[in-house]
Amino acid sequence: MKVELHEILVRPLLTEKITGLREQTNTVGFVVHAHANRVQIKQAVEALLKVKVERVNVLTMPGKLKRLGRFSGRRSDWKKAFVTLKKGEKLEMYESA
After folding, report:
1. What is the 3-state secondary structure (H, E, C) of 10-37?
2. What is the residue extent of each domain of the chain?
3. Contact assessment for residue 74 and residue 11, using Cβ atoms and an 8 Å cutoff
4. Can you give the pTM of this predicted structure?
5. What is the largest CA-CA distance in the chain?
6. Would you give the end-to-end CA distance of the chain in angstroms?
7. SS3 9
8. What is the DSSP string of 34-85?
9. CATH of domain 5-87
């Protein structure tokens, strides 16, 4: 499936784990489009955020089962990416927070 560059990065992922990774290994996290692969994620980060990427790790997170009374449903699966930036690179959106 062809995914446009501006559709790949859904939102930044801000958790305690990713904050620790950002400080130690210069790694940032993103929620990404479910059909995006590593190469597309790398191209999107480099093009849209103007930084150099060293490595991309991707995880597909299964959706949770949710219940409301006797009715049950399921949240959709989602994908997250851990993007390791090259030495000397920084993202300004994380530095201001």
Report:
1. EEECCCHHHHHHHHHHCEEEEEECCCCC
2. 5-87
3. no
4. 0.88
5. 53
6. 35
7. strand
8. TT--HHHHHHHHHHHH---EEEEEEEEEPPPEEEETTEEEEPPPEEEEEEEE
9. 3.30.70.330
55-97 pLDDT tens trace:
999 999 999 999 999 999 999 999 999 999 999 988 877 665 5
Return the amino acid letter for 95.
E
**pLDDT tens-digit readout, 13-24:** 999 999 999 999
Rg (CA), the chain: 15
Give the type of residue at 25: T
Taking a C-beta distance cutoff of 8 angstroms, is the pair 5, 43 a contact? yes
- Match 């851990």 to its residue by tokens: 82
